Amino acid sequence: MLKISNHYVSKIVFFLLFVEVLVLVGAAYAGAAVRFLGLEEGGAVPGIDHFFTSALAFAAAIIFSMSAMGMYQLNFSEGLRNPFFNKLMPSFAIGFVILTLLFYVAPEIQIGRGLLLVVFLIAGVGILAARTIFFKTSELRFLESRILFLGSGALAKECSELAMRDTSYHKYDIAGFIPMPQEDALVPADRLMTIREGHSLAWVAAANNVKEIVVSVENRRSGFPIQELLDCKLQGIKVTDAATFFERETCQIRVDSLQPSWLVFGGGFDQSFVRSFMKRSFDLICSGAILLATFPIMLITALLIYIEDRAPIFYQQERVGKDGNTFNVLKFRSMRNDAEKGGKPQWAAQNDPRVTRVGNFIRKTRIDELPQILNVFKGEMSFVGPRPERPYFVEQLAEVVPYYNVRHSIKPGITGWAQVRYGYGSSAEDALQKLQYDLYYVKNNSLFLDILILIDTLKVVLFRSGR
C-alpha cells in the first residue's frame, strides 16, 4: 500500500491508474494519426499546436469520470464484462460532457468531433485490453504478500478474514499464526506454528519467506515478544499493529480494541494553520462553485416541495459542531411536517415512511443537503467532514460508543467519508461503524482525501445511492 497525504492507496490501483493515463494519452495520439493519415506533410491539422494539452485534458476527463463511476474501487468478483458495460460506457458519456464544457471554455485545445469519436473507440479498446491483462496478472502468486500473524485469538481471526476477502485486490498469502500464552486459539489448528527451541521469531519468518508480521494480540501484558519483534524489524521484516492493519485495509479505525496510546503516538490529526487555511479555501471555492451550478436546481426543488407538501420549504435543526458547540443546520425538508410527533427525535433510516416522494428523490441525489452551503459560508461547517448529529443522539452515543467525541475535533461536513462509505444509521451499531470511518477521516484528513470524497459523492449522486 502507498500512503499519499496520510491516505492509504493500493499500489495495484495506483499502477493501474498510471497505465490507463498512458493508454488514454496514447489513444489521443493514435486517433490523430488515424484521422489525419491522409494529410500531406505541412498540411493544416486543427489544434495541432496544443495537441499534447488536448490529450492530457482528454485523459484527465476520462480518469475523473471513471473514478466517479467507481472503476478504481476494484472488485475481482465482478469480472470484466459487467464493469465494462455498466461503468466504462457511462464514464465515456460523462467524460464527453466534461470535455464539451472544457472545449467551450478553452477552444484552443478543442478536439474535433470526428477525431474525438476515433479517440473514444481506441481508448475503449485500450482500457479493456489493459484491464484484461491486469486482472489476469493479478491471479499470479508473485503479486501476493506473504504475512504472518502473531496471535491466534479473536483479533487474529478477524484480521486473517480481512486479509483473505474474495473481493480484495490486495491479496495476501498467510504463512500461519504464532499462538500466544493465555490466549484461546480460534483459528484452524493446522495453521498454528510453533517456535522450536533454539529458533527465534525472526528465523521462523525468514524460513517461511514472510514479508510482514501483523501483531494481532489483545493481551500484551505477559509473554509478549517485544525484543524478537524488534529483531524482525531490524532484519527488514515489516511489523504492523492490528489497528494499523485494520486502518489500512478498511479505511476505518477500529475502536473496540483500540489502544489510546495508538491514537496519541500515531501520525495524523493535522490541525496546523496551513491545513486549516487550505481547508477553508477549499470549502469556499467548492461551495461557491456548486452554489452557482445548482441554483436553478434549488429553485425547482423548492417549488416541488411546496406543491407536494406546502410550506415550510426548509427546516432548521440543532446539530453539534466543532468542539461540541451547537448550531442550526439548514436543509430542504424531505419529511412530512409531522415527522416527529411529540417532539421526540427519531433515527432516520433507509426507506423511512416519513419521507415524502420529493424528499425521497432529493435525499437519494443529496439535493436536500445543498442549503447547508450557507452553513459553510458562515464557518459552522466544512464541505467535507463528519456528518453533524443532533445533541439528543450525541449524548446517547457518547455513553456507549468509545471515542465518539473525537469526531467533534473538526468541523462537520455536508459530505464525508462515512456518508459515501456507509448507509443511513438507525442504531448504535450503525453509529459505531460510521464513527470508525469518521475517525479515519479526522486522523488522515487532507486535501487529497477531500477530493477523493467529492468524487465518491458524485458517484453516490449518479447512482442515486444516497447515504
Automatic annotation (TrEMBL):
InterPro entries: Bact_transf (IPR003362), EPS_sugar_tfrase (IPR017475), Sugar_tfrase_EpsB_2 (IPR017464)
Topology within the bilayer: Multi-pass membrane protein
Segments crossing the lipid bilayer: 12-31, 51-72, 84-105, 111-134, 284-307
Keyword tags: Membrane, Transferase, Transmembrane, Transmembrane helix
Bacterial sugar transferase domain mapped to chain residues: 279-462
Coiled coil: none
Localization in the cell: Membrane
Pfam families per record: Bac_transf
Domain of life where this protein originates: Bacteria
NCBIfam families in UniProt: EPS_sugtrans, EpsB_2
Family label: Belongs to the bacterial sugar transferase family.
Protein name: TIGR03013 family PEP-CTERM/XrtA system glycosyltransferase
